[in-house]
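Title: Comparing notes on inverse folding

I've been comparing how different people in this forum approach sequence design from structure. To keep things fair, I'm posting one structure and asking everyone to reply with a full sequence. Here's the target:
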């Protein structure tokens, strides 16, 4: 049974792409928060939470991708499942930046929509991989 490779190649590629994209996402979102704070009257008590949530999201992202990648490569469902759970938090934060942050620009909508799409695709592939590992 162990002669078959169960780890998902598409999932591994997606983790890699997601990692690269998230670096872009993080830098763009950070730059836009700075831009908004200069251009709009950004209330100080909103600036800090937006920045804090972005950094929390970055930490979650590193954990999510690390656990997912490790779980996939070692064909263990536990780290992959944990990565899937963390994805829920990442999705909520992405939706926050899409809908509820102080100022939402068209660029915010685009980059968050792409991120949510990759999360969705990744989650489907994770569930398939977990099912393969468990069976």
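Reply #1:
Here's my take.
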């Amino acid at each position: 049974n162990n002669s078959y490779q169960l780890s998902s190649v598409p999932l591994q590629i997606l983790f890699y792409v997601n990692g690269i994209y998230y670096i872009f996402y993080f830098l763009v979102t950070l730059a836009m928060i700075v831009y908004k704070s200069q251009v709009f009257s950004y209330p100080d008590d909103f600036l800090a939470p937006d920045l804090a949530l972005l950094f929390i999201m970055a930490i979650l992202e590193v954990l999510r991708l690390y656990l997912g990648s490790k779980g996939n490569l070692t064909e263990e469902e536990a780290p992959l499942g944990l990565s899937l759970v963390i994805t829920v938090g990442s999705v909520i934060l992405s939706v926050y930046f899409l809908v509820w942050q102080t100022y939402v620009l068209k660029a915010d909508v685009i980059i968050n929509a792409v991120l949510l799409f990759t999360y969705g695709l990744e989650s489907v592939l994770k569930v398939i991989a977990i099912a393969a590992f468990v069976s």
